[in-house]
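Sample intake — Alanine dehydrogenase
Collected from: Flavobacterium piscinae
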Amino acid sequence: MKIGVPKEIKNNESRVGMTPAGVFELIKNNHTVYVQQDAGFGSGFFDTDYAVVGAILVPTAAEVYANSDMIVKVKEPVAEEYPLIKKGQIVFTYFHFASSEELTIAMLESKSICIAYETVEETDGSLPLLTPMSEVAGRMAIQQGAKYLEKPIKGRGVLLGGVPGVPPGKVLVLGAGIVGIQAAKMAAGLGAHVTILDINMKRLRYVNDVMPSHVVTEFSSEYNIRRHIKNHDLIIGAVLIPGAKAPKLITRDMLKEMHPGTVMVDVAVDQGGCFETTVATTHENPTYIIDDVVHYCVANMPGAVPYTSTLALTNVTLPYVLKLANLGWKAATERYPDLSKGLNIVEGEIVYKELAETFNFS
């Protein structure tokens, strides 16, 4: 199969869909790989690294798309890429269709095969291709939140770890999935007091078993959320419903109950966000303020640490890319149920139930 790796062009997205090591494995399996020049530069991988393992380097994205049966990316195609996608072409990437009707319609019209990393699902319900980026985003949420709590950036002026004689900052984590647990781990490591809410008691029991005593768990309800937002300094939105829009757990009216300078980080922004006031931002302009509450809603948080993120992503995507390349998408999705869950759009038809329900497509 001919596989293409274009350069990512979303704002401040420096990751790349495949490392040179991944390209090496594909070529070893007798596939041809086209890599756009400088595609890996932002992640610390250079054209010579790809050339030495046998990749064919081409100057433009148009040439990558034109020559390839399958496109391997990181982020969803943007408007200028829509016309490049061919009928019957496999596009394997993070799509997060539920947050963009425009993207959904464009991919329907392209008649391509859209396989979304974020909905590939194993029998135990885990999401293997979302997990590493969730781990990165969860850890980054605390790193960024701690920074934006600083007063010069309009935060409350709280040091999360506190100092002797001064209590630590308080972090509220909504959701005890991969993102939430990684966020809680990082916040706890800094010495903050952490409260983590979820409706899944199994997850809460797990958190209670593995976290230190200054991480406490509570069942998630609107009552408990309203109670905690009044005295927490940093709020992390870490709720995920695979393939569907995130629920709005913090509404606009709740902002007035928070301390001025409270920071909210919405890691669910790719799925529409779990704050009613969420608007997707970029690394270039990451924050905005509503009712004196700082919102950080960057839609590609792991893109800020592309070397780490690209390596972590290729570790998990490469086995699936090989299955698709070796067998073709039909045989691969028939043989591997986890990969079949990744099918969202096939030649002009939505085949993922939650996506069809999001936009009321029949």
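Post-analysis note: The chain has a mean pLDDT of 95.
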